[in-house]
Amino acid sequence: MAQAERHVRTTARLSGALKRQDWAAVAIELLVVIIGVLVALELNQWAERRETRVLEHSYLIRLKEDLQMERDQADRFTAVVNRRLEAVALLDRLASDPTALVGDPRDVPCALATVSWGSFPPVHNISYLELQNTGRMSLIRSVALRRMLAEHYETLADFALPGLDRTGQNRFESRTAGLLSTSEGIAIERVDGDCQNMAPVTPARAEAIARAWAKRRAAIDELPGLAEHHEFNLRVIEGMQKRIDALIALINRQLDGDDRIMR
User: Fold this and answer.
1) How far is Cα 263 from Cα 254, in angstroms, rounded to an integer?
2) Worst-scoring range by mean pLDDT, 107-111, 136-140, 148-152?
3) Which of the four pLDDT bands, split at 50, 70 and 90, describes residue 256?
4) Which residues, 6 or more positions from 90, have their beta carbon under 8 angstroms from its beta carbon?
5) Which domain holds residue 239?
6) pLDDT value, residue 166
7) Is the distance from CB of 250 to CB of 142 less than 8 angstroms?
8) Quick one: CA dihedral 16, 22, 28, 33, positive or negative?
9) CA–CA separation, 114 vs 88, rounded Å?
10) pLDDT over threshold 80, residue 59
11) How many domains does the structure of the chain reveal?
12) Closest-CA residue to 137 (of 124, 119, 123, 153)
């Protein structure tokens, strides 16, 4: 309302000056109007820039949170991959000598059940996809950060297809069917492969499983392929960890700079 009243008064003064042909007054009034318009435009642009920076800041925080979740999963899956490779080594040893000593009898059924399970970590790219799908990627001022994010998620997309491939798993499981009882399979599923939480397995039962396993030559022949698959995923995870660390460091530098400006 106040702005409208000022506009009316300015228009009235300008109209009066024109009628009086008071050109000096006309020039002054026009200068006041122009300055007012320029100031208003600058204030609007400043407000828009600030709103854009605030939006960028929120996306940077969300991107960092997504990347940190990916880093946590990558750390967890490093342990998962190593357990898969340990299972490969154990089954390879038992294929040659079913009576070989094992530290814990539970390791035998557990290795047989989990050696082919997936070892590729999940990707948390929700915020990145939102930026892409809404056309807001330009909100991220840092060209280096945009490039690094694109490289990271494109690399993961390329590696996800072989990393998540279940062909070897399906083939191995079909060739080892019947080696474990239904109750043993369910018990391993219930503890999600963490066999230290399973009920004990007797040494005799572990040896019986190992002897039956040593006769499944078609399944044993799948071990090198499973080992290669898990080694591939381990290399993907190592590259993933390095890229995430670099991305988080870059985001932190920009967030620190924004915090200093906004104080």
Assistant:
1) 14
2) 136-140
3) confident
4) 102, 107, 108, 111
5) 2-262
6) 94
7) yes
8) positive
9) 10
10) yes
11) 1
12) 153
